[in-house]
Design a protein that fits this description.
By secondary structure, the protein is α+β, with helices and mostly antiparallel strands. The chain has one domain (5-83): SH3 type barrels (Roll), CATH 2.30.30. It has two helices and five strands. It has helices at 55-72, 95-108, and strands at 5-13, 16-21, 24-29, 41-45, 48-53. Strands 3-2-1-4-5 form a five-stranded antiparallel beta sheet. A hairpin with a 2-residue loop joins strand 1 (5-13) and strand 2.
Length: 109
C-alpha cells in the first residue's frame, strides 16, 4: 500500500525540491506540480509530488496518518480527535454518485 505523505518545501533544486516532514528530509521530483515556493506543502508519493496542498489539508492528512499509526499500535481509543473534520457529520456522496442514486430512485417510482 502506498500512502501520500505531506511534506513542506525547503528549496527548489531544478526539477526537484528538498522537502521535510517530521525531522527528515527528502529530495522530491516536482515535475507534476511545478516549482513551489519554500514553505509550500506537497503530497509526496514515493519521491514524487502529486499534489500541492493547503496547510489545512496537509494537517488533516498528517493527523489521519497518526491515527492509523495509533490504531496499529493498539491505541484505537483516542483517534477521534485526529479525524476532527469527519466526526459528528454525515458522510457525503460525491456529486456523480448522488446523481446515480437519484436516477435509480426515480426509475423505481
Amino acid at each position: 500500500m502506498c500512502i501520500g505523505v505531506p511534506m513542506r518545501v525547503v528549496e527548489m533544486r531544478g526539477t526537484h525540491a528538498l522537502c521535510e516532514a517530521d525531522g527528515r528530509q527528502e529530495l522530491v521530483d516536482m515535475l507534476l506540480v511545478g516549482d513551489q515556493p519554500p514553505g509550500a506543502w506537497i503530497l509526496n508519493f514515493l519521491g514524487v509530488a502529486r499534489e500541492v496542498l493547503s496547510a489545512e489539508a496537509a494537517e488533516q492528512i498528517r493527523a489521519a496518518i497518526l491515527a492509523v499509526e495509533g490504531v496499529m499500535q493498539g491505541e484505537a481509543g483516542s483517534v477521534d480527535r485526529l479525524f476532527a473534520d469527519l466526526v459528528d457529520r454525515e458522510p457525503q456522496l460525491p456529486a456523480h454518485l448522488q446523481a446515480q442514486l437519484a436516477a435509480k430512485s426515480n426509475r423505481r417510482q
